[in-house]
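Researcher: I'm preparing a figure for a lab meeting and need a structural model of a single chain. I don't have an experimental structure, so a prediction will have to do for now. The sequence is pasted below. Please return the structure as C-alpha cells so I can convert it later.
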Amino acid sequence: MFIETMQETYVRMPWFFTVCFALLGAVVGSFLNVCIHRVPRGESIAHPGSHCACGAPIPWYLNVPVLSWLLLRGRAACCGRRFGVRYPIVEALTGTLFALCWVWLPWQQAVAGMLFCAMLVVLAFIDLDFMHLPDAPNIGLAAAGLVCSFALPGLHDVAPQKFWLVSALASAGISLVGVLVGAGLLYWFRLLASVVAGREALGEGDIILLGGIGAFCGWRGAVFALFGGAVLGALILLPPTLAKRICRRDADVEAEGRAASLASCEGDEMAEFSGAGFGREVPFGPWLALGALVWFLWARKPFGSWLDAVFAVFDGLAK
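Model: Understood. Here is the structure written out cell by cell.
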C-alpha cells in the first residue's frame, strides 16, 4: 500500500520528491558545517550540540538551514556576532546536489551519489579553510565507495546477473581499480610536478582523495577529475587572480583614499575564501572534488566514451 501510494505521488507530483531530497540535503548540509568546523580541530561532531562562538547553545528553531541565516542577517541571535556566509552556501549547495542526484541519475547511482556529494563537500571546504585534508574522512571516502560499489552494482552500470553476488563483485572490482588508478596517477603526477617546481607540489591528502573519487567514479572518473578539475580550477581562478593583481597595482599608484576604498571592497566574505586560490598557494582538493562532481552528475556518458576512444588509439599505436 505504501509503495503504491509513493508511486502514485511520483506520477502525479514528480516535483514532490525533488523538493524532499533538496530539503534533506540542506539538513545534511547543516551537519556538514559542523564536520567542516570540528573535524580538522580534532573535536567531536556529536558533543556538544550546536553553539555560538560565545558559548551559548543554538536552539533548533534558530538552526533552520539557509532560512535562519537569512532571517538573522548573518548575525547570532544571542550576541550579535557575525557568522560566515559559508554556512548557508554549504547547506544550499548540498541541497542542490541531492536534488540533482535524484533528478538526473538512476536510483542506485542517486543513493550512492548523495553520500559521495556530501563527503566531497566536507573535504573540499576543509581544504579551503585549512589547506589540509584529514585522513579520517579522506580514507572514509574510498571505503564508502568500495562498500557502495559492492552493495549497489548499478553505481558502475554493471548489468544485473542471475546471482547478485556476481554483479556485486564485478562492481567492487571496478571500484578497486578506480582507487588504484586514481591514487597511482596522482602520485606520479605529484612526483613530476615536484621535480618541475623544485618543491612539493601536492599533498598526500590529494592522492588519497583522488583514490576515493576513483572508488565512486571508476578509473575514467578519476582521470577526468584530475585533468578536468585542473582545467576548471584554472578557468575559475584566472579572472579573480588577474583582477586582484590589477587592483594591487592601482593601489600602489593611486592615493590613499583609493586604497582605502579598495580595502572596503575586500570584506569579510572575501576573506572566508582566501584559501580558495586567491593567495599564493592553491588547494587542489576543491578542484578535484569539482571535477568529480561534474563527471558523476553529467560527464560520465559523453566523456566516458571519448576516453575509451582515446585509450583505444594509444593501444592501437602500441601494437
